[in-house]
Each structure stands twice: as structure tokens, then as C-alpha cells.
Design goal:
Blueprint lengths: L3 H12 L2 H8 L3 H15 L4 E4 L2 E4 L1 H27 L4 E7 L1 H6 L2 H10 L3 E7 L2 H10 L4 E4 L8 E16 L18 E4 L5 H11 L10 E4 L3 H9 L4 E5 L4 H6 L2 E3 L7 E10 L5 H11 L4
Parallel strand pairs: 3-4, 3-5, 7-8, 7-9
Antiparallel strand pairs: 1-2, 5-11, 6-9, 6-10, 6-11
Helix pairs in contact: 1-2, 1-3, 2-3
Length: 294
């Protein structure tokens, strides 16, 4: 069990405010200050700095938060595991980004379920930034993401490499045949919301050519991949996404890819989990079993 003063520290880190932390913990603000001073003496370092009324974590404070937050998450996970063992069941909670969850994960997960009938699975959908937050909070054990993440903070396992393409309706007509990215700028682009892996990959790929999404004539922002694909099928614009997400539309002839000389992108789908967790080996074994059959 963690020292109760660590709980106070983690609460202050979440709020960056002593008063709000005191209210959540139902203790006085002087008690919060006392707990923090005790930890600063214990570890021999300042954990917070203050600029006016604003509170900031020091570098050592950030390090302590990262380590202690993971220890707390592991402690809570261990309690759950021990409780599950009493009932002969096992719970696994993981997150997937929208594209992966809707178009990629069903087959490998179905195989895993058949091999582990006594396992309860909790699958959370979210964009990459949302899943990173849930990992930090201990809400999920691991995630399968398509977007970018701070690699030094996580253990990783490659799930697959996927082709990222430009797509439009099969009946879409261009004023002139597009050959490079800028030839598409007169078009309306359909894009995901900021924070989504698909959006991040597109923005980075465009930035390599000194372009951005604002270079397109106008845009439609949609937070659901199915809706984007439906709008593309109805010839409401063009989009950039993973080829796997539109495989059926391409095969049926409703959609077509837009070959571009200066846009050839492949990106990793990656399992990630906290680097400091004591359950790293168990998580890796689960992820290895979920990997698609070569």
C-alpha cells in the first residue's frame, strides 16, 4: 500500500492546485502542504514551483509522478487480479483507435477469445491522445494505436504496417488528373478530429512537403470513420486514410485510390503499454497472441 502522502502528491499533480486537492481528499489545505513538504524532505528535492498563483511540477516532481502513478496503477491492477483468481476468471482491458477497432481487430480478437473462453475482455475505443490518457490513469492495460506517441514512455510491439492512401468516390471527376498532392488542393477534404491517429499521420505527411490541411479548398471534420467513408461514397470530397479501412469499398468498385507521385506512406499499428509496469511480461504475451497470423 502506498504512503497516504503519495496519494496527496498524485492528487496535487492532477489538479496543480492545493485547494482543489484538499477538497477532493477531504482534508485541509495546510495538511496537503504538510504532506508535500514531508515528501520533499524524504526525497531531498523540490517537487513543485510556483509562479504567482500557478503551480508547476519540477523535473524531479514529474519523474516522481510518473513512477508513483504507475506503482499506484499496478497496485490497483494486482488487487483486481487477485480478486479474479478467486472466481477463476481473468479481466483484460485494452484500448484501440477507431480505425483499428472498426476494421482491423475483429479477426485476431475472435481467435484470442476462442483460445481463452474464461477471459473477460473490455475494449475501449478512442483516438490516440485519449488512449494515452487512459493508459496513464490505469483505466486500460495496453493499447493498439495508429498515431504518434512518446516512444520512450512505453514498451511496444509492432502489430502491422498499413498503407495510408488518398481515396475518393469511383464516380468522382477531377478537372485534371492529379499527380502530386498539390493537385488535390482544389478539392474538399474530409478529415478526422485533432488528436486522432489518422489526422496526425496526414498532417505529418503533408508537413514533409511544407503543406497543411488548410491548403485544401475547404474541409469537413468528422469524428467517425464510417461517416467519412459514407460521405466519400456519396462523392462529397476526398480523404486520406488507411487502405484497410476502405478495402471493401475498393473491392466493390464504389471507391478508388488516387495515386500520387509524392505521397507514398506506410505507418505502424503498434501495441503500447507503460514501460514501468510490473505486468510488462504478461502484457507482451497477450499482445503476441493477438498478433495477426502472417
Amino acid at each position: 500500500m502506498l504512503d497516504f502522502r503519495i496519494d496527496t502528491f498524485l492528487c496535487v499533480c492532477r489538479h496543480l492546485n492545493f485547494t482543489k486537492a484538499a477538497k477532493e481528499l477531504n482534508i485541509t489545505q495546510p495538511a496537503v502542504s504538510q504532506h508535500i513538504h514531508h515528501l520533499e524532505n524524504e526525497y531531498g528535492t523540490k517537487l513543485f514551483t510556483q509562479d504567482g498563483k500557478k503551480l508547476f511540477l519540477t523535473d524531479n516532481g514529474k519523474l516522481l509522478y510518473k513512477k508513483m502513478n504507475q506503482i499506484k496503477n499496478d497496485d490497483e491492477s494486482l488487487k483486481e487480479i487477485l480478486s479474479q483468481n478467486n472466481h477463476g476468471l481473468k479481466d483484460i482491458s485494452f484500448g484501440v483507435t477507431m480505425t483499428i477497432g472498426e476494421y482491423i481487430i475483429a479477426d485476431p480478437i475472435s481467435d484470442y477469445i476462442k483460445n481463452h473462453p474464461d477471459t473477460n475482455l473490455k475494449i475501449t475505443f478512442g483516438n490516440t491522445s485519449e488512449l494515452l490518457k487512459k493508459l496513464s490513469e490505469g483505466v486500460i492495460d495496453f493499447a493498439l494505436v495508429e498515431g504518434y506517441f512518446p516512444e520512450n514512455d512505453y514498451e511496444t510491439l509492432l502489430f502491422s504496417k498499413e498503407e495510408f492512401v488518398s481515396v475518393c468516390s469511383a464516380k468522382h471527376s477531377f478537372t485534371q488528373k492529379p499527380r502530386v498532392i498539390k493537385d488535390l488542393f482544389p478539392e474538399r477534404i474530409l478529415i478526422r478530429e485533432p488528436g486522432s491517429g489518422t489526422r496526425n499521420i496526414l498532417e505529418r505527411a503533408l508537413a514533409l512537403n511544407n503543406y497543411s490541411t488548410s491548403d485544401f479548398r475547404n474541409f469537413i471534420q468528422v469524428e467517425n470513420m464510417h461517416a467519412i467513408i459514407s460521405l466519400i461514397e456519396k462523392d462529397c470530397g476526398i480523404t486520406f486514410l488507411y487502405k484497410a479501412a476502405v478495402a471493401s469499398g475498393l473491392q466493390s468498385g464504389y471507391l478508388k485510390t488516387i495515386p500520387l507521385d509524392d505521397f507514398r506512406v506506410k505507418h505502424d499499428f503498434t501495441f503500447i503499454w507503460p514501460k514501468d509496469t510490473v505486468f510488462s511480461e504478461e502484457i507482451r504475451a497477450i499482445c503476441e497472441e493477438i498478433l495477426p497470423v502472417a
